[in-house]
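Sequence in, structure out. Go.
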Amino acid sequence: MFMKVERQLSSGQAQQQRVVLGIDPGYGMLGYAVVSACGHEVMSLHACAAISTPGTMPLANRLLHIYQQLTDVVRVYQPCEAAIEKLFFGRNTTTAIAVAQARGIALLVLVQHGLSISEYTPNEVKLAVTGYGAAKKGQVGQMVRLLLHLDAVPQPDDAADAAAIAICHVHTVHIVREACPSYSLERSF
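Output:
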């Protein structure tokens, strides 16, 4: 279930290290990635995978499965911050509603475990990772591979997207904190 890749930190960096969970919401496949960061630099990738649910399973059971699996991820890696993609509502409202329900389950898990939560649009993620807000999926995947010093782009795409969301958060929060020192990650839902 988990893909683990780590880089060693120097003793000075270990004191400032924080663990960030990135989530790409979905009900068929929910991507997640866990990274360690020091300041605005991603230091290591601890996990990058997806929680999948069979299409034959009733939606309520799929949501329960996502809840249980994501809870396990949070318990294993104990992140202190989380970043999740904001929903983009396309033309298929049936799919959008199911994705929104899965996103709600993810938010519930995060809030239950006391994580601070930040949300990013797809364009914000692309801009933070590639420098171009309209980048293609392949370009984002390649930048994730480069930034995390991986041999290949994480698979499935949902896992790579979750890693991009985590990277976006690490880079964006650093900029926001510098611009506004009183900024707090705490959000109440």
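Check: The longest helix spans residues 157-179. Residues 11-179 form a domain with the Nucleotidyltransferase; domain 5 fold (CATH 3.30.420.10).
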